[in-house]
Design brief:
Strand order of the largest sheet: 3-2-1-4-5-6-10
Structural class: alpha/beta
Shape: globular
Radius of gyration: 20 Å
CATH topology of one domain: Rossmann fold
Number of strands: 11
Distance between the termini: 44 Å
Helix content: 40-55%
Oligomer: single chain
């Protein structure tokens, strides 16, 4: 009998790739979506769509109960839904912590707890640690988030870890990029318009992970049957501040660019103004106080040894290969 899986946030960047891999593996796949979610990357004929309202616990229970009455529980649940940008900082808590709690409580009350509940968190839960010694962030380090996003993710993690016997697996990827992703695409657009920007005068130690490698790690945890573990993810390399933009330039045919390096105090001011302006108009801003703190952080190195040894995780995409594939997709889709 085929194994079954629910992937929340399935219409999003990472979620849509997780759906594709689950289908390739021949699993019975349910894509958890909101009523307003795009279905652009969820067109496979064997894919089941399931609307879930995780903001309202009773409605969520009703939706899950309806599924249980027909199909029973899922073997695996990957909780990928969440928010990376919000108008109000309190919305991070709602989207990333409370909705996680609502989902887990509903699964528990309905006796639908899967073999593994996999949670997509973020390296941002650690905050700016090892800024002075330059050591990689490790699983054993004490998280100290300095962003509303990181705080909400950590709160969700601690909730999962507090539940005795819950078969969770937590992934904390560094910056995830790839086809369909829109935040890093802003850099592509800027360079195509001959502007390249950098944050701060002191060099950054940056890390990245390609979306397909995140997917590899997640399904590696399913294959390994691990539970009650947390893993950091990157491609295993460390890059300078300009590496990403230099690779984008190469894929664009090396256009001329004006390189602008902004002192951190300037970025702080601009971020606050952008956040204030967006908030007045009821929108979220890509440039905001959280983003400023992320740009300010100098050390994003992380130790992926546990994922390598326990899950057999072997990153297939360094930044050069990943950017080349991503840029080819942007061109094919007419984004650039």
């Amino acid at each position: 009998m085929k194994e079954s899986i629910l992937i929340t946030g399935a219409s999003g960047f990472i979620g849509s790739f997780l759906v594709e891999e689950a289908l390739k593996r021949g699993m019975q796949v349910w894509a958890g979506v909101r009523s307003t979610s795009s279905r652009r990357y969820l067109q496979h004929r064997k894919l089941h769509l399931l609307e879930l309202d995780m903001a309202h616990p009773e409605r969520l229970k009703s939706q899950l109960s309806g599924h249980k009455g027909t199909y029973n529980r899922w073997d695996y649940v990957i909780h990928c839904a969440g928010a990376t940008k919000c108008v109000d900082k309190a919305e991070f808590d709602q989207a990333n912590y409370l909705q996680t709690r609502h989902l887990v409580e509903a699964l528990s009350e309905l006796q639908m707890m899967p073999r593994q509940l996999i949670y997509l968190s973020s390296l941002s839960v650690y905050g700016p640690i090892h800024e002075q010694d330059g050591e990689p962030i490790r699983e054993t380090d004490t998280p100290c988030p300095n962003t509303a996003y990181g705080e909400s993710k950590l709160k969700a993690e601690r909730y999962l870890q507090s539940l005795e016997g819950l078969p969770y697996v937590i992934f904390r990827p560094t910056g995830v990029y790839g086809p369909r992703e829109r935040d890093y695409f802003l850099m592509v657009k800027s360079i195509s318009r001959h502007i390249d920007t950098a944050a701060g005068l002191k060099p950054q130690q940056l890390t990245f992970v390609y979306v397909r490698d995140v997917v590899q790690a997640v399904f590696g945890s399913i294959d390994a049957r691990v539970t009650r573990r947390a893993y950091l993810l990157s491609d295993g390399q460390v890059y300078s501040s300009r590496t990403f933009s230099d690779l984008i330039r190469r894929e664009l045919g090396n256009p001329w660019v004006v390189r602008l390096t902004f002192p951190l105090w300037t970025l702080r001011l601009v971020s606050r103004l952008a956040e204030w302006w967006a908030g007045r108009h009821g929108k979220s801003s890509t440039l905001n106080s959280d983003k400023y703190r992320i740009m300010k952080q100098r050390n994003w190195q992380c130790d992926i040894t546990p994922a390598v040894t326990e899950l057999g995780y072997q990153p297939q995409y360094d930044l050069q290969r990943g950017v080349a594939e991503c840029m080819a997709w942007y061109k094919q889709e007419g984004w650039i």
